[in-house]
Amino acid sequence: MERSGLPFVTGIVHEHITMDSFEDEEQGQGGSDEWLDVDDDPSKPFLRPVRIYGSRLARDKDVIAFEERAEEREWDIDDHKIEVLELQSRYDTDLHWGLSEKQVLKNRKHYGENFLQPPPKPSAFLKFFRAVIGGLNALLWGSAFLSFLSYGAQYIYTDRISNDNLVLGCALIVVVHISGAFSFYQEFKSSRIMESFKTMVPRSCVVFREGSRAEIDVKELVVGDLVEINYGDLVPADIRILECQNFTVDNSALTGEAEPQKRLSVCTDDNPMETKNLAFFSTNAVQGTAKGVVIRVGNKTLMGRLAKLACGLDSGPSPIAVEMNKFIMIMTIRSLVFGGVFFGLALAIGFSLIDSIFFLIGIVVANVPEGLAVTFTTILSVTAKRMAKNHCLVKHLHAVEALGSTSCICSDKTGTLTQNVMSVAHLFFNSAVALADTSEFVTGQQFDMQDPGFAALANVAALCSRANFRPGQEDIPVLKRTVEGDASETAILKFMELQMGNVSRYRVNFPKLCEIPFNSTNKYQVSIHDMSKTSDPRHLLVIKGAPERVINLCTTILNGNEELLIDARQKEIFNSTYVGLAKLGERVLGFADCRLPLDRFPLGYKFSSEDPDYLDIGFRFVGLISMIDPPRASVPDAVSKCRSAGIRLVMVTGDHPVTAKAIARAVNILSEGNETIEERAERLGCTVEEINPTTIKAAVVSGAELKLLSASQLRNLLRNHTEIVFARTSPEQKYIIVDAFQKLGYIVAATGDGVNDSPALKKADVGVSMGIAGTEVSKETADIILMDDNFSSIVTGIEEGRLIFDNLKKLIAYNMADNIAEMYSVWLFMVLRIPLPMGTIAMLLTVLGTDVLPAISIAYEKAEADIMKLRPRNPKKQTLVTPQLLSYTYGQTAVLECTAGFFAYFLTYAQSGWLPGDLIGIEKKWHSRSVNDLVDSYGQEWSYEARSQLGLTSQTAFFVAIVLTQFANVICCKTRRVSLFQKGMRNKKMNAALIFALALVGALVYVPNLNASVNLTVLRPEVWLAPLPFAFFLIIYDEIRKFIVRNFPKTVVGNHLDT
Q1: Does the pTM exceed 0.85?
Q2: Is there a contact between 791 and 214 (Cβ–Cβ < 8 Å)?
Q3: Per UniProt, what is the membrane topology (predicted)?
Q4: Residues annotated as catalytic (active site), given as ranges
């Protein structure tokens, strides 16, 4: 047990606190009095100045809210502020009798029906169609069209009809459908946001019409209806509360606050999100009853606005989609340029117009990496599956790389950074503060039950409670048990169960005789117990509640075995402790007890909760217990990793600024030594106006302050403060914050679990929802779901995303090399007019056959270095396809592979009597069926059939050479900068893929009938050795290139060679 001395000393943030600003939640802190004068005006909103470029933003009327989008404006209504009679007149209703049937029809026509109208959604067929024609598939469709066009032109205009182009076109169509179907399947369970909202909509409600009470379907409700809400009901519409009894609602899905919120019949705030006389559509009534009038229905409710905002948003293309679009544009332009150049060249050197067109089409098609679409989608899928094993479920494949590109995370607090469960954090007894264990895995921390101070506090905490464990949970760990009771009492019950053992059995010994439940007026709970089984039979009164209210009823304070009169010294200790705990964002409750004198309250006395005559006896104050939703143990380390990776982490929560700041400090979002302007001013003992704002890098901004900032002022705030916490934000404000970061050039990931988070999740480049605590709405809106609700899983996802960007660059370098080498062979075939080096089917066999598994195995390559130490990539400078990468593929690897291919090609001809020089310019005669006496270099005559067989052998040799040099290429592509000898061949998937590809080539070459079906033939063994020197040279050359890149990165040569 940790104890701190007197007075309470911590690294507390000294803010201006209004205790009632904690929403008077449950038995929460009450207003100020003689004990704790925390605020002269408890109704004053929690506002602090914000510094931007040295100017103070006070609450000036000249400062305007955002007007960039109508949807981003705050929910501007006044139904909660106007008088009841004016409200009655506005909606033509009677607040005693309800609406008439005639008025119901009129209001329904005027204000609309009470259901959420879903937006039109694309059909499954349209989604599949988009998957088939989108992205890289668009290039393949173009190539397929050109292939069919070439085949059709051959059929019409020439007598040499080859089926190669027809086969190519059909193969490409099959490829795009496979790739599209795969993408469609992966994203099959895409957004069903409106259906998710519907699951939260109540089905029936109690309404008063024409003086009669009736239960009707929620859809029949109209504006102006008088409704009744009871404990357990879902609120059927947005309602202005007219009367209520101890009415509490759970707004967590809308605001992110874990604590239930008290509702009243009076307006407490101009902001409709903050006032207590409104209850919102689909929130849950967790206590009491209420009667109110409907002011908004259907799409016009707050929930409806969230639905509309979330469904109507278009987050735009993902970062990888942008890169793919650039790649498609580059390849299209290059294909057309190369095709155009060689079309003109073909005409210039004497080819006919129709043959020149064939060359144009061939060059364009050959420049398109046909296999890239399949391998690209597969690599994303492989990475997504690997992330799923780390509790990161990817819904949309493009989100994989987008998460790796993230430069800013806008994180929710409750359930994401915290455990989403209230826990006892501190105890105050014997005039000192003790620290409780708030970790997710409590280590069995025990307080001394023999300590009189703790024993008295534990006794009151155990007895003065209405919370109970649900029966039948004896074998379940205490912290996992379900409790019937509110969040604060649940935390105390579990804590006391760990300390005392069986609390229920303990309570049986001291039966409850009378109880005064907590209410918002008294701000305390009282119970009286029968103590006849003890040595002191006097009745025991126990009380808990708002600390300043409880201690007002006390005359003494317990310190060990002593009861001390409450004097100025004790007041100082109490005040400093109370303020200190409150400023840590913790909910503080005070506890006291009293033995009732027998002369006034003899045994058998009938106590009354309606007319209590026992509250005037001076009580004994025994201590304080504070609670908080504590941070997850793994979050601080995850935050540190994000910071070292250059990622900005911003908290955006609907919770109170004090609580938000405390959690931000605890998890290091607000780092140690980085003060807000208020903290700096308090430390220096000056006003905020005297602080140089340019030296302040941390800020806590409330929703009320955010509302006063223009778009440009908000962006200035984001630029000039490296650590920011946004608190008390509305759903629209979360969306605005994400949008502002995006306009500053950040790639934003937003996390959340509630309905209130859904607009921001949809707007962000990557929306991340919680899998356990997350609502269905947030899960359907998100791109990625954290199945363990652990923020640290995001770090794993970012690392995978960064790795995949590197691996995709390697994939492009690998996939494009043989494509370009084959394109070069077409060029030389056309320019040198030699026999065809490589057939179309052989080209397809490389890009869609032998290349595929080695390409996919690149996804299993591990990071070359600690990529989480690097800054996020700049999407404007660090693109997927760079000039250096194109230079590497077009000018280095492809040239070497093409050279290897021609070496094997010419070697095969030379073995049969055709020297290279004699093959140049012979193409027309070589392919002529009428020439059967063509003479080789040694005077031998060759018939057409013999030449065709030799040509098939040489094309097979070229094919084998390309495949073998591609083996060397994929080995080179294992790393971009690190030496292959340092990385090694530890990628078992790649090793297996190479063995499989080699076996596939062997089968294609040597299996009878199979080789004939793909226009290949048997090769002599020595031909396989021909490309090996080139393969080894490629590996050696690439090692030299990487050495230069590593050691001379800033030189012209080093920069040019860095892919």
Answers
A1: no
A2: no
A3: Multi-pass membrane protein
A4: 412
